[in-house]
Every structure is written in C-alpha cells, then in structure tokens.
Amino acid sequence: MVKYSDELDAMFSALADPTRRSVIARLGRGPASVGELAEPLSISLPSFMKHVRSLESCGLIRTKKSGRVRTCVLNQDRFHLLSGWLEEQRRIWERTTDRLEQFVTTGSVDSDGPTPTKEES
User: Fold this and answer.
1) Residue 50's CB: how many other CB atoms inside 10 A?
2) Could you give the CA distance from residue 80 to residue 82 in angstroms, rounded to a whole number?
C-alpha cells in the first residue's frame, strides 16, 4: 500500500472538508447535477465548483457534461482503494489489541504470535 500513499493522501485531504463529505454522502444515493449538489449548501456556485474539482482531481468522483448540465457520480474504484487501506489498518490494530489483551490477562505475550511487519510498526 505504500505505493498508493500519494493517492491516499489526496483522497483523505479531499474528505477532510465537511462540504466535500456531504457531496460524497449525497452521491452515495446516485448521480446528481452540480446544481442539485450545491442547492442545499449556502455557498456560491464558483466556490462549490472548487469542491467538485477537488473531489474529481483525487478521483473520488467523475463528472460528465451534457449541454449545460454537469453530472457527478462516485468513482467506486477509488473507494475500493480507500476501503482496502482502512481494512489493512483495522487488521494491524486488531493484532495489536489482541496482543495487549493477552498481556493484560496473562502477563506475557506469546512469542509464537504474529509479529508486526516493518510497515505495521
């Protein structure tokens, strides 16, 4: 997953903003036009377009223009990259907490147990 570091950084940076997270949440229900996405927000359309471009540049959404209407849709492939990274982190933390639980309950940690890899440390 180290090779995906820059891509993950860009996605997490985009998702750090509440406006962009609300756009992602709305698009989870299906495609929507930029106007539909911007309507419930109290920001100007040019400001909202910066959010759309941010989500598009990191690959979380795709847009398609038909006439004067730009429609946005989630890019599921990018979410698979995110979910894969999060799943890897969950496994690392589960192993760590399992070893901690073993230490707390028995006073020692099995030397035969899984040892974290260099990336996990």
Assistant:
1) 14
2) 5
Entry pTM: 0.73
* Residues 97-120: tens digit of each pLDDT: 877 878 788 877 776 555 555 555
**Helix ranges restricted to H, the chain:** 5-15, 18-27, 34-38, 45-57, 76-106
Distances in Å between the alpha carbon of 77 and those of 60, 69, 71, 90, 120? Answer: 8, 24, 18, 20, 25
Whether residue 17 contacts residue 60, with contact meaning beta carbons closer than 8 Å, is answered with no
Asked whether the beta carbons of 8 and 40 are under 8 A apart, the reply is: no
Contact call for residues 88 and 95 (beta carbons, < 8 A):
no
